[in-house]
Amino acid sequence: MISLTLLVAACGSSERPWWDESGGGRRSAEPVARPVQPVQPGSTYVVRRGDTVYSIARAHDVPVRSLIDSNGLSAPYRIEVGQKLTIPAGRFHVVQRGDTVYSISRQYNVDMASLTSLNRLPAPYTIKVGEKLQVPSQRTQSTASSSSTSGATGVPLARPVAGAAVATTTTTPSKAPTVAKDPLPAPPAAVGGFQWPVQGRILSSFGPKANGLHNDGVNIAAEMGAPVKAAQSGVVAYAGNELKGYGNLLLIRHDNGWMTAYAHNSKLLVQRGDTVVRGQTIAEAGNSGSVVTPQVHFEIRKGAKAVDPSTVIGSM
């Protein structure tokens, strides 16, 4: 299941991407925070000066992720005065000591796939005491169950990694891309170690970012049209642009449960099911999706877990 969720962003935005740490300065005047006046669950809240996604979620006692998903917000989750947000309604569970995803799913008689999908929990589904989870409704369960059997790649690129647009009015959260159900051939044996897909300045490193965001990969500056090369031999598991925010995206499945992702390309040179070899040019770099400057968003995953590429490949 691809739950690469998240990032509904407008192409061609002039806003600096949230992960671009190259500078650009701060706004000269920050909004003055004011207490949020809560509304009833399921109602519409009108954003006031000084509001943030976090302050609105906290005032309404709902998970930040639920508020983001209910309104189709994209990283970096900026909101505007006068913007209307739907406050999610439904059941929520505060994680207690000894809770597991399985025990919570049994407590509320919901399936684990729906619970983990709704709350964007990547394997191995670690939860923390005090964390608030949204409990799926029957409608949410049927949707999640359907997507889990749709032949998707099985790689949840689960946390925000891209987005340079200001959120607009309430929209429907973006759905996972439709992936053909034809089985993929087995990936070839690995050849040597992983390599960087492109050489360039790191715009954003792996790991936590401001405002609770997280980059599950690295963003590498590149010349427009520069060759993007396969980090390792493998089979193309996804090639398309259905996932807004990532532009032209490639996912390549490798031997021993590894997978790599390459986003924001200007052109894809391979398609789903193609076998590629390490160092083969698979795309041309660009600024498709939610970014302004040409770059490659690159991820390495072992199963569903994102791995810092610099720990696998070394410094560029």
Features of the shown structure:
316 residues; alpha+beta; Membrane-bound Lytic Murein Transglycosylase D, Chain A; Glucose Permease (Domain IIA); two-stranded antiparallel sheet; 6 helices; 16 strands; 14% helix; 22% strand
Give an account of the 3D structure.
The chain is α+β, with helices and mostly antiparallel strands. Among the domains are: 91-136, Membrane-bound Lytic Murein Transglycosylase D, Chain A; 202-312, Glucose Permease (Domain IIA) (Distorted Sandwich), CATH 2.70.70. It is 14% helix and 22% strand. It is built from six helices and 16 strands. It has helices at residues 53-60, 64-70, 101-107, 112-118, 138-148, 309-312, and strands at 44-46, 84-86, 91-94, 132-135, 202-204, 207-208, 214-215, 218-221, 227-229, 234-240, 248-253, 258-268, 275-276, 281-285, 295-302, 305-307. Strands 5, 8, 9, 10, 11, 12, 13, 14, 15 and 16 form a ten-stranded antiparallel β-sheet that branches. Strands 1-2 form a two-stranded antiparallel ribbon. Strands 3-4 form a two-stranded antiparallel sheet. Strand 10 and strand 11 (248-253) form a beta hairpin.
In CATH terms, what is the fold-level topology of the domain at 202-312? Glucose Permease (Domain IIA)
Give the biggest beta sheet: 10 strands, antiparallel
What would CATH call the homologous superfamily of the domain at 202-312?
Glucose Permease (Domain IIA)
Q: What is the CA-based Rg, rounded?
A: 20 Å
* CATH architecture term of the domain at 202-312: Distorted Sandwich
Contiguous helical run count: 6
Structure summary, number of beta strands: 16
Note the beta-strand portion.
15-25%
The chain-level mean pLDDT equals 74
